[in-house]
Amino acid sequence: MDYFKLNNGVKVPALGFGTYQMPASITEENVAKAISLGYRSIDTAQNYGNEAEVGAAVNNSDVPRDQLFITSKTQTSGYRSTLRGIDESLQRAGLDYFDLMIIHWPTIDNLSTYRALEDAYKEGKLRAIGVSNFNSKKVQKLIDHAEIKPMVDQIETHVYWQQNKMHDFLDKNDILHESWAPLGEGMSPVLGEPEIVKIAADHQKSTAQVILRFLTQQHIMVIPKSTNPKHIAENLDVFDFELTNNEINIIKNLDQGHSGVNWPSSMGQEAY
Ligand code: NAD
């Protein structure tokens, strides 16, 4: 496993396990499987309805809590409801702290919502805080007016929307770029892109592995999701090879510069 460092010094696995649209009834077994294979970072959210099952897998695992990195996301707006929501998430998951809590999507008053994350961070309930689906203007507002700079922005990022402008902006501000839908949510034909198929064959890897390596080599954290045991194992096995500059440039050229799902609209390239 490779690790990145957040701007508050916290170490974060470069690759984690996503749980969006994973039914609660199968989440604990899948997260337990992922942890036993070597995943050390799990991504859940209040909105996913599976925080309790993620927490159960963490608490029933042989891996010490301090070697795991658990992320959740708020779905509330404003100070009080967000503070309450964080406590409810901790209680649901049966955890003393989250390693990262991010605002799931922009709210009416981002500063008040974010202030709740700051206060929970100061109390030790969160080891790191950040945002998701925030464009550069919204992140800049937090940099200018919040007390604590966000540590992460989790945004849709894959081969067809590489988010180069956001990446440069986040990099310049020492905020980690985290990709959601690194494999294009499995909806797009990206896994069959002929150029990537060729690169994968040259490295004796799958196209999914090449894409995950492409992103992590550029200092982008990834959290691919799967419930297929073969894919769960495959997605983790990406740190024993390196793409050449030429291969990276070939994949860079596949960027289409727009979202695959067009959500939220405030993230559009033109709204950067
Ligand atoms: P993803 O890009 O991880 O794709 C998941 C799909 O790809 C799976 O359903 C599976 O069908 C397929 N897949 C996975 N591994 C494969 C492999 N090795 N070979 C072939 N097919 C494979 O999409 P995602 O789940 O939407 O995104 C990853 C995670 O990001 C989510 O689970 C969630 O935790 C997070 N997320 C966050 C937001 C947000 O708004 N912050 C939005 C969407 C997702």
Automatic annotation (TrEMBL):
Binding site for substrate: H104
Active site: Y48
Natural source organism: Candidatus Companilactobacillus pullicola
Record SUPFAM superfamilies: NAD(P)-linked oxidoreductase
GO MF annotation terms: oxidoreductase activity, acting on the CH-OH group of donors, NAD or NADP as acceptor
Protein name: Aldo/keto reductase
Protein family (similarity comment): Belongs to the aldo/keto reductase family.
Domain NADP-dependent oxidoreductase: from-to ranges: 15-255
Keywords of the record: NADP, Oxidoreductase
Keyword Oxidoreductase appears in the UniProt entry: yes
A Pfam entry, by short name: Aldo_ket_red
Superkingdom of this protein's organism: Bacteria
Site positions per UniProt: Lowers pKa of active site Tyr: K73
